[in-house]
Design a protein that fits this description.
With 209 residues, this protein is α/β, with parallel strands linked by helices. It has six helices and six strands; from the N terminus they run βαααβββαββαα. It has a single domain, classed as Lambda Exonuclease, Chain A (Alpha-Beta Complex), CATH 3.90.320. It has helices at residues 27-34, 36-44, 53-70, 124-141, 165-184, 194-198; strands at 24-25, 83-92, 97-106, 111-117, 147-152, 157-162. The protein is globular and about 55 Å long. Bound molecules: iron/sulfur cluster.
Length: 209
Amino acid sequence: MFPNLPTNDDEEVLIEPERGEELVTISLLKQYIYCPRVVYYETCTPGVRPRTYKMQAGSEAHDRERERAARRTLTAYQIPEGERYFDVRLLSPRLKLSGLIDEVVLTPDEAIVVDYKLAGWTGANHLIQLGAYSLMVEEAFNLPVHRGFIYLLKPRRFESVSIDEPLRNSVLETLQSIDRIRLYEYMPPPVDQPNKCASCEFRRFCNDI
Ligand code: SF4
């Protein structure tokens, strides 16, 4: 699917970016899960994405729920005490990532990441984002992250997520794939689930579907 990439002696992909070490936002990971080609449009043709009504409505619902969450107790996270921080912006030069995290809970032994989603169920795109947030939080706060929560705004329900090894590996592999696209301006093939194209903002750019 992707062109061959340079590797080092440990068989790791070794990319020396032509455009410098610019950070990518975590939202690119969930877009990659939706369709890798969206990452191409976002990074190689910046500024073309239209802001839809759906995105605006989602943002407002998200803000309202965040205010409610601030009044909620820690019982939902199954911990007796902890410090809650909202809208935590992190940069990771190691992962070349930046992200704005809805909520981080710090306890003496662990950190917990909470993400609010305007959705009725947890999807792979939500999981990868939570996994990436967790890696960034571990780096920033020097605390392990074993679990996180996705709060589904529609059913108003918390889903507990284990931040396990497969999820961590999946984050790192996805970041490598994103680098391949943005640094080599590689356009991936169209997604193999045509129903996704029907509601995609980039539909008019894809002439091969
Ligand atoms: S229209 Fe389809 S193939 Fe093109 S970017 Fe959107 S989801 Fe991907």
